[in-house]
Each structure stands twice: as C-alpha cells, then as structure tokens.
Amino acid sequence: MEKRRCHWCSSDPLYIDYHDQEWGVPVHDDTVLFEFLLLESFQAGLSWITILKKREHFRKAFDNFDYQHIALYDNDKKEVLLQNPGIIRNKLKVNSAVTNAQNFIKVQQEFGSFDSYIWGFVNNKPIKNHWKYYEDCPATTPLSDAISKDLKKRGFKFVGSTIVYAFMQAIGMVNDHEVNCFKY
Fold first, then answer.
1. Catalytically annotated residues
2. Is residue 181 a known part of a binding site?
3. Contact 72, 123 (CB under 8 A)
4. Nearest to 150 by CA among 179, 126, 120, 128
5. Coil vs helix vs strand at 127
6. Is 177 annotated to bind ligand?
7. pLDDT tens digits for range 4-50
8. What domains sit in the chain, N to C, each tagged with a CATH number?
9. Any known ligand binding at 6?
10. How many CB atoms lie within 10 A of CB 122?
C-alpha cells in the first residue's frame, strides 16, 4: 500500500523526498536554518519546486550556505551570482542574502545561536496543527507576523509573514502535515 501524503506533494520525486525527509522536521543546526532562510527568501513569488530543482545550484553558488562567508561577499561576488543561470538571478534577492547573513551573525551574537532566537518564539516546542486539507492551512499567522516584524526590525530582507510562515513549516517550528499524511 502506498504511503498517504499531503495533497500538495506532487508525483515529482524531488518533492516527495523533500516532503518525506525534511518538511516539518525540526531543524536546530544554524547552517541548515540559514539555508532554509536563504532558499525561502529566493522563493518569494515563485513555486517551491522551482527552488528545490535549483537547490544544489544554490548550494554551490552560495558556498554551501556558509553564512560567515556569504556575509563577506563583495560587489564582484554578487555580480558573479547575478550571472549564474543555476540560481534565481534577482539583484534584490542576492543583496538580501548578504544582508541576511550579516544579520544572522548579529542574532547569533545576541542569542548564542540563531536556533535559540527562532525557536524561542515557540518555547522550543513545535506547533502541531490539525489540517484535514492543506488548503485550510493559512499563509500567515499572528506568530509569523510577529517573527517577520522582529526580523525586519533586525534588518533582514525578504522576510514577510508569508515567507516566515513557509520557513516555520520548512524547519519544523510548525507541523502542517495533513492529518491523513503518514508524516502527521
């Protein structure tokens, strides 16, 4: 018998693997948290499958999501990124990756880790929702609004409430698997 998955999970093997192995699984490693923050910010206005298909190109282009390194990118490196057909070539998003890396480090310095900061919003305990249909899941919540507002106050870019909520789902801060999904 085939596993039941959330309805958004298409037949694409990349999507299935992401759904089964990553989406909604709590992440506490700062490098992986930065990876998802960067990928979600580039996803703005696009489909997640587009980003997943380009993920390895992003990994290579952005030095394995090494935020310490990305924080030091100069204009020459940004120009190289804007010429890379393997990633989303959007100047504002490329600039935001550098700005966000710099601010990510500032948050680490203030809280000890980005993990402590971000998971503090949920008292280190994932929120488990009970959606029968994924379509019932909101795009934003009062919590994603609050996190977005705080990130923006700290200088982060491309962190609107919808992006933040998708980030929360990706890193397992919120479990939005449908109740009939085997990952629920």
1. 18, 40, 48
2. yes
3. no
4. 120
5. strand
6. yes
7. 999 888 788 999 999 999 999 999 999 999 999 999 999 998 999 99
8. 26-175 (1.10.340.30)
9. yes
10. 16
